[in-house]
Amino acid sequence: MKPLQRWMSVIFFVLGIGGLHLMGMGCLKAQDFPTKAIHYIVPFPPGGITDKMARTVGQRISEVWKQPVLVENRPSGNALSGADWVAKSSPDGHTWLAMTIAHAVNVSLYPQAPYNFVRDLKTVIINGSLPMVLVVAQNLPVKNLAELTALGKKRSLNGGSGGNGTPQHLAYELYRLSTGLDAHHIPYKGSMAPLISLIGGDVDFVITALPDGLPSIRSGKLRAIAITTLKRHSLIADTPTTAEAGVPQLLMNSWTGVMVPSATPKEWVNRINAEVVKTLKQAEVAEGLRLQGFEVVADSVEASQDFVLSEVERLGKIVRLTHIQPD
Known about the structure:
By secondary structure, this protein is α/β, with parallel strands linked by helices. It has twelve helices and ten strands. Strands 1, 2, 3, 4, 5, 6, 7, 8, 9 and 10 form a ten-stranded mixed sheet that branches. The radius of gyration is 24 Å and the shape is globular.
């Protein structure tokens, strides 16, 4: 064998061994994940429904993985700052974003956001969804959605929400678009403020996440007249769906899940998804979440990613049609 051929053979042999070594290291790293604490970023205050979901999931996974899952609340910038922090963090699978419907809406509300939601973040899983329910004060002379719509065509109604661009506001706008309702939007700060105002008689109706409205529904202070989902919810089983009430276009779920930086390796994304799915399908966990108003979703990575992209498009259309501007 000529000297040049011998050297080439040696080089290819070394490169081959090196390649196998790197492949082995890659597999080892995937098996070893996680290697340190998980930081689960919740871009909302403690105690809210997104925070409760994150803490439920985080506690269970920390027990299985033997690594802390640290839920960190970063409630500023309309959920933008928390998402930006995760988008720019190391793509090593140890930083998660508790993303919600708000992030999908923000794509249209904040086109100049410091991160690109679709490009910089990757959906891992949709943990669960929250039905929204249309509630009125007990003294409003309507018993169902048809009567509320008819009243809104006789006189202008006031619809409250937790602020411009919130899920409550988008549900309000979708109701108005679907029925031609004459209504005036009154934005408040936070999801509970419009419900307090509704009880006080300052607004006529609010479409809110079920967990927020449930205590006042149960106490008799508010009347639930429609739920904005395809099927009824066991916690308010007597309340018809919007389709049953004659407005099938009025479909709006609030939802939450997990995202990671987009460059996070697929193997680790799949590992996170599998563990969260396993956690959410435990009977005790699923029942606890149901009692809070959640419907467990726990879908695959691909299905979750497709859902988020479809919501970005659907919600963006509502924002553009109704010319919603951020607060």
